[in-house]
TrEMBL record:
Protein name as annotated: Uncharacterized protein
Spans annotated as Disordered: 48-157
UniProt keyword annotation of Signal present: yes
Organism the protein comes from: Algoriphagus boritolerans DSM 17298 = JCM 18970
Coiled coil start-end: none
Position of the signal peptide: 1-22
Biased composition (Polar residues): 126-141
UniProt feature, compositional bias: Low complexity: 78-94
Keywords of this entry: Signal
Biased composition regions of type Basic and acidic residues, renumbered to the chain: 59-70, 104-125, 148-157
Length: 202
């Protein structure tokens, strides 16, 4: 009798532990959903795949798996786009750097010419010196205009790569400026009042 009672207790214990450890499709779905909410998408996909291994026809697990796989594909596409944009920016910066090197070489050449002109001016009369100074000023203004035009062209190229017109860029800047002003106005520091004497703080 004692043996039967022990066997019956053991069988009941095994049955209960099996019931406790037995997992339903809902259990897998719930664990996967918790992982998804915690932004642990890899673990969520792992739970879904385990659940589908035991319950291949469960519609909730299938739907969650499709959603997770779709989000993974979107993230990969975004990463590829970001990397492509970064590569484009690096290339444009490299080309701008080369233009800057060319400009600095030109400026060095202009400076050496200016130095030569100054050396030659020391032996000339004042009227010739003023004429040459005016010509140098005009040359310098022309060089500044050329630099500004090159910078504008580079900016237009950047805007084209971002599919923005200069008007759209100006609108974006204006809206950001307006938002910043609103934020500053809303968060102005309000004057504090001193507590009145004789009255409790509460």
């Amino acid at each position: 009798m004692k043996n039967k009672l022990t066997l019956l207790t053991l069988a009941l214990f095994l049955f209960l532990t099996h019931e406790i450890t037995a997992q339903t499709a809902g259990d897998f779905f719930n664990r996967a959903a918790r992982s998804y909410v915690k932004s642990d998408k890899e673990n969520a996909l792992k739970e879904v795949n385990q659940g589908l291994g035991q319950f291949p026809n469960d519609s909730k697990l299938k739907a969650l798996k499709e959603k997770l796989e779709k989000e993974q594909e979107e993230e990969q596409q975004e990463q590829q786009q970001d990397q492509q944009q970064q590569n484009d920016q690096n290339q444009s910066q490299d080309s701008e750097g080369e233009q800057g090197d060319n400009q600095s070489e030109q400026k060095d050449g202009e400076q050496s010419e200016e130095d030569k002109a100054k050396e030659g001016q020391e032996g000339k009369d004042p009227s010739q010196q003023s004429e040459e100074a005016g010509e140098n000023a005009n040359d310098q203004m022309d060089a500044n205009l050329a630099d500004q035009q090159k910078r504008m062209e580079a900016m237009r190229e950047k805007l084209k790569s971002m599919n923005l017109t200069p008007e759209q860029a100006a609108q974006i800047l204006e809206s950001l400026n307006a938002a910043e002003l609103r934020y500053i106005q809303e968060n102005k520091k309000k004057p504090t009042q001193r507590p009145k004497r004789g009255l409790p703080d509460w």
